[in-house]
Amino acid sequence: MREGPLIRDDFVPIPTRKGLGSSDPSRCNMNAAAWTSPSITISHLCSTQRTGLFYIQSKSWASKMSLENRAAFLDGPRQRLRVGPASIGKPNAAEILVKNHAVAINPIDGITQDLGLFVQQWPAILGHDIAGEVVEVGEGVTQFEPGARVTAHALGLVTGKPEHWGFQAYTVVQAHAAASIPPSMSYEDAAVIPLAFSTAVGGLYQDGFLGLRLPQQTGERTGQTLLVWSGSSSVGSAVIQLAVASGLEVIATASPRNFDHCKSLGASAVFDYADENVVERLATRLQSCSVLGAFDAFGTEESTRKVAEILSRIGGGFIATAGQAPEELPNNVRVKQMLAALVPGTDVGKALWKYLPAALASGQYKPAPRANVIGEGLDSIQTGIDRLKQGVSASKIVVKL
């Protein structure tokens, strides 16, 4: 699929032979009347090597064009995904319509498929992570225009509307939950970002959680340390990068083969989570640190208990997690669970999503872990869900559309 603008303002794309069309009428030796004339023909094309499209300025013509949508539907719990035609949403105020070029698979997708959790109507569409091209913007949207390349957090879990879910050709996205991506970044890499980013933001910056200061460009350190359990996971990779950008030292856990991955993102030390003495080793390492708290990116009761025991040994503390907190915890440890889908709509969520484009452009924030492209087309999403259930390490399952 060609990357680049599909529709710009009210210009209608018309396919032509490569090298014959211009994406901008100002680049052609034609007057304005020619561009608005309904009788314009292929002979009016001007020469350029940049694109295989040219554009006619005609709102009436554009209004007659139709986009065809398809989606991967879930008809009920424990059913296989079914691909079929779907209605296409129109962006309202503060929303954008994105043509998806890649989607990523998350554990919640498989859980929802198995149990029907969070489904408000059947058939349902799933999917949280998308990357693609803006084709239409709603009223009041100024940070994007048609043709923009974006990564976005699909928030169907919040709205309950089918058009806001990710596993389809076109998704309506709240503009505050989207970020422009650099020209050099592939859609497949960009698709790994959204849900993990929102989850990390929720635990690190929201009031009532760890309460970090916002990321800094200066590199100024706070002198505080954060423990990140499962640093090579999608959420852990996001947490490490954001915490380091906010001036913290990060100490993480991972499997030995993923130590370098965590260190490449900014972790100063990494411990083997499977080591039978990991609790004792981490408590010893953290004893001399000013520990702000911990982020359990794995999010199981077992992992949270281990993190809680570590903090309890050094005087207690706070744990942010996306998982369910155990019922029994040490008295000096507090755990709080966040719902990532609610984060982009908060003030701090909007601030961090606004921060993301510049961070991606500068390299302060990188898509991590690596994208593992499992297939192409909506039919491959079920394959991706099945593959994720088998387990992955320092990678994220992505489907190219």
UniProtKB/TrEMBL annotation:
Residue ranges of domain Enoyl reductase (ER) in the record: 76-399
Record bears the keyword Membrane: no
Entry-linked SMART domains: PKS_ER
Any coiled-coil regions, as ranges: none
Keyword list, A-Z: Oxidoreductase
Gene Ontology molecular-function annotations: oxidoreductase activity, acting on NAD(P)H
Pfam families assigned to the protein according to its UniProt record, in alphabetical order: ADH_N, ADH_zinc_N
Highest taxon of the lineage: Eukaryota
Record family assignment: Belongs to the zinc-containing alcohol dehydrogenase family.
Protein name per its UniProtKB record: Enoyl reductase (ER) domain-containing protein
Organism in which the protein naturally occurs: Cladophialophora immunda
